[in-house]
Amino acid sequence: MLPIKQLTSDIAQNIQFVLSDIDDTMTQDGKLPANAYQALWDLKSVGIKVIPVTGRPAGWCDMIARQWPVDAVVGENGALIVYEEHGVLKEILHPQVADPKIADKLKIIQQDVLTRVPKSRVAKDQAYRRFDLAIDFAEEEPKLPLQSAEQIQAIFHQHGAQAKISSIHVNGWFGEYDKLSMTHLLFKELWQLDLDQEKQHVLFCGDSPNDEPMFAYFPTSCGVANIREFASVLRSPPTYISQEEAGRGFAECVAHLLRLRADTTT
Predict the structure, then answer these.
(1) Does domain 97-173 have CATH number 3.90.1070.10?
(2) Which of 142, 143, 181, 259 is the most exposed place for a label (fewest CB within 10 A)?
(3) What does the alpha-carbon distance between residue 57 and residue 45 come to, in Å, rounded to a whole number?
(4) Which residues contact 86 (CB under 8 A, 6 or more apart)?
(5) What is the CATH number of domain 2-94+177-263?
(6) 145 φ, ψ to 5°?
(7) What pTM was estimated for this model as a whole?
């Protein structure tokens, strides 16, 4: 991973989209700091489209699409897209989330996880989810080690479910989709663009293993410094890394990007 300061002006000038995880990428100690939120407005002010790509629930995506300076939100690790168009909130669901038996299957997994993994618990935002199950291992106390998260992930897999580890939750679902596949659909549906042809115009920021498909796909990606916690399990690390952690690292990355772009226009 190269320091983000090694991002060149040629690459920066080519960026038209910033995609980013939220938790521990934009947020700092569970809060959205002023500098990270300002970074979103700074991107918007120069015409760069911003799309959070998150494991957070559909209910959160509703609020983010309405109140943040973003162009769309991918939520629940790719289950849905929420965006606002001419003052009307709209959504796109992944075709594989229509199975009415999903909720029953996830309830069985929930009971299995809580029985087998000591101190694991259902995430407090589960009430606002529609298509996945989030098990909290590090958002609230007691924080569990990465080994517990890996055990939870293995239980999801034993039941035939997909599962990804974020910095705070293990998210599990049924369906062959993830953050990246839904991002492909987003570009096609909202802007009639082929992401394979546009990926060189994208900067992706993230912090954890559930961002790995994005790191592997986008040639310009930045991990905030706390991604080093997951270095042992990352097979596809980001191209760049910020000096600062979490929200400060996101703000650092955006500031460097915009500084380079400004330098080429003065």
Answers:
(1) yes
(2) 142
(3) 28
(4) none
(5) 3.40.50.1000
(6) -75, 165
(7) 0.94
